[in-house]
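Dear colleague,

Thank you for sharing your sequence with our group. We've completed the structure prediction you requested, and as agreed, I am returning the results in plain text so they can be pasted directly into your records. Please verify that the sequence below matches your submission; if there's any discrepancy, let me know and we will rerun it promptly.
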Amino acid sequence: MGIGARFLQTRWLVRAPIPLFRAGCGFLFGGRLLLLEHIGRRSGEHRFVVLECVERPDDSHVILASGFGDGSQWYRNLVAEPRCWISIGFIRRRPGTARALGADEGRAVIERYRTRSPKAYAELSGVIEEATGLTIDDVPCIEVALDPR
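Please find the predicted structure tokens below.
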């Protein structure tokens, strides 16, 4: 198994950036990574995950791809409870509402990502396929509409 796939499957490594975001240092990751705060569908507790922003069509929208498919906890939680908070760059804990994209919309997002960032696409697609057995072209996507400031 490659290093990228091992990284994605190592919980403490994946969660390591969370304290930096919560301390207001999300700008260290630029606009590529973000902190998603969401509500557990069973517990009702606030949950945190750092994800790559696959697309940011404008300042009030971010699009996320669920590399582990529709079984990812954060994905399932957003489908059950769309209220969430995003921290990205210098933005801290901005509220938003999530919406699962349809399969065609998701494929279009991933195609734009492939065109815009071919090296990142190639690397990420290999890691996702190795870690999960899924093809990146079919991963579900979520759009978060951020509330006006």
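Summary note from our side: The chain has a mean pLDDT of 88.

Kind regards,
the structure core
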